Amino acid sequence: MPVDAADVEELRKLGEGPHNGALMPLDTIAEVLAYAVAVARAENLDEADAIEMLARAARLSRADVLGAHQVLAPLGYGKVCARLKHLARRRVCS
Questions:
Q1: Domain that holds residue 46
Q2: Could you read off the pLDDT of 64-90 as tens digits, one per residue?
Q3: Based on the structure, what is the number of domains in the chain?
């Protein structure tokens, strides 16, 4: 399923609301992305699409995307890292 701009915008709006701190233990972008992969896998969703939607909604910089790639690649997140590299090349991120 391709990532739709309307879905990205909806996710972005969800992130603007009040936060209860439930994800505070996730300190880095790589940790947040790895958690999103775990959720996507648990819900039988495409993990690369989930990561792209999250990266675009959060307006991650190219440096942030490449930094997360550097952490996640040695951990075996191949499909996700391929998408992160694609995003960085396309300059979809800010």
A1: 5-11+26-90
A2: 999 999 999 999 999 999 999 999 988
A3: 1
CA angle 39, 76, 94 (to 5 degrees): 70
17 occurs within a structural domain: no
Among the listed residues 16, 69, 79, the one whose alpha carbon sits nearest the alpha carbon of residue 45: 79
- Does residue 71 lie within any of the structural domains? yes
Is 49 contained in some domain? yes
Map tokens 């590299």 to a residue.
85
**pTM listed for this prediction:** 0.72
For residue 85, give the nearest of 70, 71, 66, 63 by alpha carbon. 66
| Residue 93 near residue 55, CB atoms below 8 Å | yes
Please check whether residue 18 lies inside any domain of the structure.
no
Report the alpha-carbon distance of residue 87 to residue 48 in Å, rounded. 11
Question: What is the pLDDT averaged over residues 28-46?
Answer: 94
